[in-house]
Amino acid sequence: MYRKILFSIITLFGATALSAQQGNLELKTTAAKQEVVVDDEGNQTTRLIPVNTAVPGDEIVYTVTFSNISTESAENVRVTNPIPSQMAFIPGTAFGPGTDVSYSVDGGETFGAPEELTIADPEAGTRIATAEDYTHIRWTLKTPLDAGAQGFARYRARLR
Amino acid sequence: MKHISQIVFGAVIVACWTSPSFAVGTPVGTSIDNVAQVTFDLGGTTLTQNSNPVSITVEEILDLNLLAQTPQRSVQAGDADQWLLFTLTNTGNGTETFQISSNNVVAGDDFDPVAPAVTIYFDSDSSGDLSPADIAYVPGSNDPNLAADESVDLLAVYDIPPGLPDGSRGVVELSAVAATGSGNPGDVFAGLGDGGIDAVVGASGAAATTPAEYVVGNVQLDLVKSAAVNDQFGGSQPVPGATIVYTVTVTATGTGTAVNSVFRDPIPANTTYVAGSILLNGASLTDTPADDAGEFTPSPAEVVVTLGNLTAASGAQTVQFSVTID
In angstroms, what separates the C-alpha of A1 from chain B's closest C-alpha? Predict the structure, then answer.
């Protein structure tokens, strides 16, 4: 019994390692739905369940984990994630420990804080961009990522 | 310049229909891929790497909206084949078949409308009322099959029993249900969605029941129309450039209520509507729909004024508007 479980964990780990890109930083993306579980005593626990299907209106939690598998410290680390066109980013949900979050409204060319981003509007001239306009999210690490260190970045979006 | 005004009651005319827009979701079967990227400096070199792709496939959501276009209709006791118009919209993200039914025995009303041989028709000719071209709905035989965001207009048709007092209300309910399945939002029908993907019940429960009612009244609306011409030379010659002010009075006579009365008047050929000229009982109304009772629709050019429920006690309603001769 124990052997079987151990075997399957190794298999899973092996598959993950193979699917990730070879290199100095290992980067992995997952999509999940948040589920609230209530036990017999009424205690609520939220957990993330990985998903590969969804229906319009569902909220998806995208998580990008990164780890430095090299022997050197990586500097100026920035993780960038395009927001899929079918997903509507939920404002204020982009988060990552030790990172500054910025957004792009031009397909990932330039990034800025929400108040710095404007959209050229044929009628109103320019206007401040809204979450609907964001095409990419970027998490910039405030400090170098040491060898062996890891972190994650996360955001939520709703399937249109 | 022959010119006919029209009053419609018991029917909400096209221009006044509420047409809510339903944002239909991402189509069933769509694959949504997401790849993250990391850029960093290592040993003086800038490097970029991609993550694994993560893919989400969109399942079918079963949803519908059933709207009563005629929530209330004035009828007379003994009338046969009285219709109520509904619109069924597939608000899901796939193609779905819907089963329709109607119910004439509803608690809380004053009488039960009587079912003729056929109680549900498709408004096949899009006339908004029952006409000879309309095709009878036969359950299981011609259930409407609607693509995502597609709508179909349906008519519930009943007879009104004789001998009812004015003001009697008879309610009819129309129901629609997704053929794949219905239930609580989130219920899953494994493998039954388009292309064999799972189908999931949406917020509507994939079923809807919408009431509409008949109101008995022996009421008539009389229209009297007059026109006054003011030419640009201070006279009253109907020459190009002259203004015609139309005044129409609408008066309810008899007993009962003319519900949802709507006044509509097409702008005559060879004239142009004077913007902002609609008056109701002397008060100015805007040309914009929905902000008040008045509206000017440019195509077809028409003045529309919602008068609401009228009885003999309401007194004469006076609508005025102006056109210029081209």
Answer: 31
User: Is the Cβ pair B39, A78 closer than 8 Å?
Assistant: yes
Residue B152: both structure tokens together: 């179909």
Q: Which residues of A touch B53 (CB under 8 A)?
A: 29
Q: DSSP 3-state assignment of B32?
A: strand
Q: What is the pLDDT of residues B214-224, one digit of tens each?
A: 988 877 778 88
All structural domains of chain B with their residue ranges: 60-216, 218-325
Is B40 within 8 Å of A77 when comparing Cβ atoms?
A: yes
**Residues B159-187 pLDDT 10s:** 999 999 888 999 999 999 999 999 999 99
Chain A interface mutation, best of B37, B55, B198, highest count of A Cβ atoms under 10 Å: B37
The two domains B60-216 and B218-325 share their CATH topology (first three levels equal): yes
Which of A19, A54, A145 lies at the smallest CB-CB distance from B56? Answer: A54
Q: A24-159 domain in CATH 2.60.40.1170?
A: yes
How far is the C-alpha of A26 from the C-alpha of A68, rounded, in Å?
A: 6
| CA–CA min distance A22, chain B (Å) | 9
Backbone angles phi and psi of B55, in degrees to 5: -120, 135
**Domain range annotation of chain A:** 24-159
Q: Which fold has domain B60-216?
A: Immunoglobulin-like (2.60.40)
- What's the fold here for domain B218-325? Immunoglobulin-like (2.60.40)
pTM of the model: 0.69
Q: What is the predicted ipTM? A: 0.78
